[in-house]
Amino acid sequence: MIRLSVFYPSSEGSTFDHDYYREKHVPLAVKAWGLTTADIDKGVDGPYVAAVHFEFDSVEAIQAAMAAEATGEVLADVANYTNITPVLQTSEIIPLG
To answer: Which end of the chain has the least Cβ crowding within 10 Å, N or C?
Structure first.
Protein backbone atom coordinates (compact mmCIF):
# COMPACT_ATOMS: atom_id res chain seq x y z
CA MET A 1 0.00 0.00 0.00
CA ILE A 2 1.24 3.49 -0.89
CA ARG A 3 0.25 6.70 0.88
CA LEU A 4 0.21 10.11 -0.76
CA SER A 5 0.36 12.82 1.90
CA VAL A 6 -0.15 16.51 1.21
CA PHE A 7 1.18 18.85 3.90
CA TYR A 8 0.46 22.57 4.24
CA PRO A 9 3.33 24.34 6.05
CA SER A 10 2.39 27.12 8.44
CA SER A 11 3.93 30.51 7.75
CA GLU A 12 3.26 34.13 8.53
CA GLY A 13 0.50 35.50 6.32
CA SER A 14 -0.74 32.08 5.25
CA THR A 15 -4.47 31.38 5.08
CA PHE A 16 -6.32 28.07 5.20
CA ASP A 17 -10.09 27.42 5.23
CA HIS A 18 -10.44 24.11 7.09
CA ASP A 19 -14.20 23.89 6.53
CA TYR A 20 -13.91 24.29 2.76
CA TYR A 21 -11.03 21.81 2.71
CA ARG A 22 -12.99 19.15 4.62
CA GLU A 23 -16.37 19.71 2.96
CA LYS A 24 -15.39 20.47 -0.65
CA HIS A 25 -11.75 19.98 -1.63
CA VAL A 26 -10.87 16.60 -0.15
CA PRO A 27 -14.16 15.01 -1.32
CA LEU A 28 -13.41 16.41 -4.81
CA ALA A 29 -9.99 14.71 -4.78
CA VAL A 30 -11.41 11.43 -3.43
CA LYS A 31 -14.01 11.36 -6.22
CA ALA A 32 -11.55 12.42 -8.94
CA TRP A 33 -9.14 9.64 -8.01
CA GLY A 34 -11.70 6.88 -7.49
CA LEU A 35 -10.96 6.52 -3.78
CA THR A 36 -13.44 5.88 -0.99
CA THR A 37 -11.90 7.95 1.80
CA ALA A 38 -8.99 10.07 3.02
CA ASP A 39 -7.64 11.09 6.41
CA ILE A 40 -7.38 14.80 7.22
CA ASP A 41 -5.11 16.28 9.90
CA LYS A 42 -5.96 19.71 11.31
CA GLY A 43 -2.74 21.07 12.77
CA VAL A 44 -2.83 21.86 16.49
CA ASP A 45 0.90 22.25 17.13
CA GLY A 46 3.84 21.83 14.80
CA PRO A 47 4.98 23.04 11.40
CA TYR A 48 1.79 22.22 9.43
CA VAL A 49 -1.63 23.90 9.34
CA ALA A 50 -3.15 20.78 7.80
CA ALA A 51 -2.42 17.57 5.96
CA VAL A 52 -4.35 14.92 4.08
CA HIS A 53 -3.45 11.31 3.44
CA PHE A 54 -4.70 9.24 0.49
CA GLU A 55 -4.04 5.50 0.17
CA PHE A 56 -3.41 3.84 -3.19
CA ASP A 57 -2.62 0.25 -4.16
CA SER A 58 0.63 1.20 -5.90
CA VAL A 59 2.86 4.02 -7.14
CA GLU A 60 1.40 3.35 -10.58
CA ALA A 61 -2.09 3.99 -9.20
CA ILE A 62 -0.94 7.38 -7.88
CA GLN A 63 0.60 8.19 -11.26
CA ALA A 64 -2.66 7.27 -13.00
CA ALA A 65 -4.62 9.45 -10.57
CA MET A 66 -2.29 12.41 -11.18
CA ALA A 67 -2.72 11.95 -14.93
CA ALA A 68 -6.52 11.78 -14.70
CA GLU A 69 -8.43 14.58 -16.40
CA ALA A 70 -10.22 15.47 -13.13
CA THR A 71 -6.89 16.20 -11.40
CA GLY A 72 -6.82 19.58 -13.16
CA GLU A 73 -10.02 20.52 -11.33
CA VAL A 74 -8.52 19.35 -8.01
CA LEU A 75 -5.41 21.47 -8.54
CA ALA A 76 -7.40 24.52 -9.65
CA ASP A 77 -9.52 24.28 -6.48
CA VAL A 78 -6.53 24.84 -4.16
CA ALA A 79 -6.88 28.63 -4.53
CA ASN A 80 -10.37 28.39 -3.00
CA TYR A 81 -9.07 27.41 0.46
CA THR A 82 -5.40 28.40 0.85
CA ASN A 83 -2.49 30.50 -0.34
CA ILE A 84 -0.01 27.88 0.92
CA THR A 85 2.09 25.87 -1.52
CA PRO A 86 1.59 22.24 -0.45
CA VAL A 87 4.40 19.74 0.11
CA LEU A 88 3.78 16.20 -1.19
CA GLN A 89 5.19 13.01 0.30
CA THR A 90 4.76 9.52 -1.19
CA SER A 91 5.38 6.71 1.29
CA GLU A 92 5.19 2.95 1.44
CA ILE A 93 2.99 1.87 4.32
CA ILE A 94 4.86 -0.73 6.36
CA PRO A 95 2.73 -2.60 8.90
CA LEU A 96 4.20 -3.56 12.27
CA GLY A 97 4.82 -7.21 12.93
So the answer is: C
